[in-house]
Every structure is written in structure tokens, then in C-alpha cells.
Write a structure and sequence with these properties.
about 250 residues, alpha+beta, Alpha-Beta Plaits, Beta-Lactamase, 2 domains, five-stranded antiparallel β-sheet, four-stranded antiparallel β-sheet, 7 helices, disordered C terminus
């Protein structure tokens, strides 16, 4: 199991090089680096390290603490990511649109270094329509009345709540270990879910020989018809990718 480390460091040339050199000095290989956020002259980076679970993490912590201006936000072990990039997920959705939602939910924990992910109907927020193994049951008690994505924390677990474009279905993901979700991750999840929903509708715009699964079919039903049949008004103020100023992010994410 690789180690996931989140650090914030001065956003200037040489800062990341100093971190990777310090980690190399204690015998770890950096498998990947991604920028989780950038704000106020500092960058927040996620590093995936080749550091077995059986090895104590004290050497890693000491190495990072010795880097000037570096702050460690969290260190934990995660499962080996099966999907490395957003484009990998979109390629899988294009190849099998009939299982687009299931594919998306299964891939999201790998893309966001999360521990679990679930699709929920906002009227039944504690019962998943589809969920990854390890998802808590019932799901954490959340309020899904707002049309905007947001982050929160509950019982030491960071949560990211993102609505699908119709505003009825939501995607919840959870991350244990005290590493919160950033503003950039919130925007990225909104954009990714919107693209997946658009790809499904495009794939089934004309007759298709492959029928969608019951879960994926939820994205194909016109929202007006669904809300009318269930006796509720449609929420037209749904989330869209923004520049970040309208997306709610908790202070614990930074």
C-alpha cells in the first residue's frame, strides 16, 4: 500500500525539489505528485510514495519537517490507485456508457485519494443507490438541500458532496485521516461529474444496442418528468463549474 502525503509549501521554484530530495534521502520513491490547491503564495501538493505499510512513518515525518517552509497536512496509507487520471475514467465511460455511473463511482476514490464513494438520491441521503466497498452504512447524515457542492467533516472524516447536473442525484466521497478536500478538488469533481453526465446523454441520444443499467439510466430521464412523477418541484438552481468563489469549502480543507 503506497503512502499518501499532503504538504503545503512555498509556491516558488525549488520548493518541491527540496521535498523530493529529502524523501529520497530516507529511501522512498515518489510515485506521483499532483497540485491540490494554490493560494496565497503557497501550494498544496499530494504526493504518492512507495512506502510499505509495515515501515514506520517517523523517517518520512522527520524528513518533511526538515524542509524549510513545509507543513504536513496528513500522512496515511491508501490502496494502490487503479485509475490515475481523469481521462482514464472518461475513456472507460466512452467504452461502456451503459455502466457509466457505476464506473464513475468506482473510479472516484482512486482519482481523489478518497476511501469510499457513493451515489445517493437527495431524498434518501443515507441509503446509497450505488457505493464502493467500504462505504459506511448508513451513509453519514448530510444536508443535500443546497444546489452547490461543498465539503464538510464528520467524526474525523472529510466529506465532499457534489450534485449531478439534475440536482437530484449526489455523489458523496469520504477521506479518512484528517486530509480535507480543497477548493480545487471541489471544482474538479463538479466538472468531472458534468462531463460524465453529458457523455451518457450523448451516447444515448440515438438508439443504442446496449441498454443502460438501472443506475446509469437515472441520468437519461428528463429531470422535469422525474420530478413531476414524484410530486415535487424541480430544483433549477443546479451547480455548475465555477471560478471557486461560489463553491462552499470548509476552512479545514486548507
Amino acid at each position: 500500500m503506497p503512502a499518501h502525503v499532503r504538504v503545503s509549501l512555498p509556491d516558488r521554484p525549488g520548493s518541491l525539489a527540496a521535498v523530493t530530495a529529502a524523501l529520497a534521502g530516507v529511501g522512498t520513491n515518489v510515485l506521483s505528485v499532483s497540485v491540490a490547491d494554490r493560494q496565497g503564495g503557497r501550494a498544496v501538493d499530494d504526493l504518492l510514495l512507495d512506502w510499505p505499510h509495515s515501515r514506520a512513518t517517523d523517517p518520512l515525518t522527520r524528513a518533511l519537517d526538515g524542509c524549510p517552509g513545509v507543513r504536513v497536512h496528513g500522512l496515511r496509507h491508501i490502496a494502490e490507485p487503479a485509475v490515475a487520471h481523469d481521462c482514464d475514467l472518461l475513456g472507460q465511460v466512452a467504452a461502456q456508457p451503459e455502466r457509466a455511473v457505476e464506473t464513475m463511482i468506482d473510479a472516484v476514490p482512486h482519482l481523489f485519494f478518497a476511501d469510499w464513494c457513493a451515489l445517493v438520491d437527495r431524498r434518501r441521503p443515507r441509503t446509497p443507490e450505488y457505493a464502493t466497498p467500504g462505504s459506511p452504512l448508513p451513509l453519514p447524515e448530510t444536508q443535500l438541500s443546497s444546489p452547490r457542492p461543498r465539503t464538510t467533516s464528520m467524526d474525523g472524516e472529510a466529506l465532499l458532496l457534489t450534485p449531478m447536473p439534475d440536482g437530484l442525484l449526489w455523489v458523496l466521497m469520504g477521506r479518512r485521516g484528517g486530509i480535507g478536500f480543497t477548493r480545487n478538488e471541489t471544482q474538479r469533481s463538479t466538472s468531472l461529474l458534468s462531463v460524465v453526465a453529458a457523455m451518457v446523454r450523448l451516447a444515448y441520444r440515438n438508439a443504442s444496442p446496449r441498454s443502460p443499467s438501472a443506475t446509469t439510466a437515472r441520468l437519461l430521464e428528463p429531470a422535469d418528468a422525474y420530478h413531476h412523477r414524484n410530486g415535487e418541484p424541480r430544483n433549477t438552481d443546479v451547480a455548475r463549474p465555477t471560478d471557486g468563489r461560489d463553491v462552499g469549502v470548509s476552512a479545514s480543507s486548507m
